[in-house]
Design a protein that fits this description.
By secondary structure, the chain is an alpha+beta fold. About 40% of the residues lie in helices and about 25% in strands. It folds into 3 domains: about 120 residues, eRF1 domain 1 (Translation, Eukaryotic Peptide Chain Release Factor Subunit 1, Chain A), CATH 3.30.960; about 110 residues, eRF1 domain 2 (Nucleotidyltransferase, domain 5); about 80 residues, Ribosomal protein L30/S12 (60s Ribosomal Protein L30, Chain: A, 2-Layer Sandwich), CATH 3.30.1330.
């Protein structure tokens, strides 16, 4: 399962001729496989045209050879059960690194001096660990959700009659696991009345709480993960709103605990004082691809900040949904400081 260390290792893949990074989501059905294949081919043709416009014929030839040799890996991107797939191929070697991702990663192809990791960061952030409390008849289950999969943590006897206050032992257990695993979201699922009691009594403070009242008692791990997916998505958007709000309020205060805008954020990253990098996940930060003097097209400015944050050990959140709007005045970039 994808970790920050995995992303840092992938980001370290470098090549003087360039590293080809290709991302694609799992086709939805049999017909979708052909559609996805055509889409990947289209992305590679677009990249080829961009490189050809840069005037570096050697790099264009190397990129075309690379695409030819990794065709088996490109075909494998259309197979398997993983929601997202990625591959990274240095142009100067015969290596190709293939990665399965438990969350969607979108569709793109990029050639840069290092592996392109922005989609991986977005997938990891959306798949951050979260808690799931399930009221199952005579018992209550505690599970951990991560990257679209759930794993059991513990099972407890039902906390008395329906509507009674949750036992202190369960509440303490949930808080302990939440602190250990870094939960920012908790979903409580099951009987409507009991689910709301559990949400009030057992959910850790500081977490975004969602309640799912549809029947889930008989669902297996995969079905349960699907059942709570929408609630976790909504909770993530609320978490991001609070995070953006806190960052902006801190930056506008007198304590100097946050910065707004790409310039200040880049300087703070270089100084190693960033605790949490935030950027608008849906914003196009660069102008349409223009060749630089050295033959490379302009790299994604967000990717540059991500790499600095990875090297400095900062947390990273690509902001989606309504929380993007307050970041607009800061050109979509902000950071909380240590």
């Amino acid at each position: 399962m994808l970790t920050w260390d995995d992303i840092r290792s992938i980001d370290a893949i470098a090549d003087p001729q360039g590293v080809l990074s290709v991302y694609a989501d799992r086709p939805e059905d049999g017909d979708g496989r052909l559609v996805r294949a055509v889409s990947i081919a289209g992305e590679l043709r677009r990249l080829d045209a961009d490189l050809a416009g840069g005037g570096d014929d050697d790099r264009v030839v190397a990129q075309r050879r690379c695409v030819h040799r990794i065709r088996p890996a490109l075909i494998r991107m259309l197979e398997g059960r993983a929601p997202g797939r990625a591959l990274f191929a240095p142009l100067s070697t015969e290596e190709v690194f293939e990665v399965e991702v438990g969350m969607p990663v979108g569709l793109t192809a990029v050639l840069d001096t290092t592996a392109y990791v922005r989609p991986l960061v977005a997938a990891w952030d959306e798949g951050r660990p979260a808690g799931v409390i399930v009221a199952d008849g005579s018992s209550t289950r505690l599970l951990s959700w991560r990257m679209g999969a759930v794993e059991p943590v513990g099972e407890y006897g039902r906390p008395g009659p329906l509507g009674a206050r949750i036992t202190r032992s369960l509440a303490a257990e949930v808080r302990a696991v939440a602190d250990e695993q870094g939960w920012t979201r908790v979903v409580v699922a099951g009987d409507g009345r009991l689910a709301h009691v559990l949400a009030r009594s057992a959910a850790p403070p500081g977490c975004e709480i969602s309640v799912v009242t549809r029947p889930v008692a008989r669902l297996g791990p995969r079905g349960l993960a699907t059942a709570v997916g929408g609630a976790l998505h909504e909770a993530q958007r609320r978490y991001e709103w609070r995070l953006v709000e806190r960052t902006i309020e801190t930056a506008l205060g007198t304590g100097g605990g946050a910065v707004l805008g790409p310039g200040r954020t880049r300087r703070a990253l270089d100084q190693g004082v960033v605790k949490h990098l935030l950027f608008d996940a849906e914003r196009e930060y660069r102008e349409p691809r223009r060749p630089r003097v050295d033959g490379w097209t302009d790299r994604d400015p967000a990717e540059d900040l991500i790499e600095r944050a990875l090297h400095g050990g900062a947390d990273i959140t690509p902001v989606e949904g309504p929380a993007r709007r307050p970041l607009g005045a800061a050109e979509g970039i902000a950071a909380l400081l240590l």
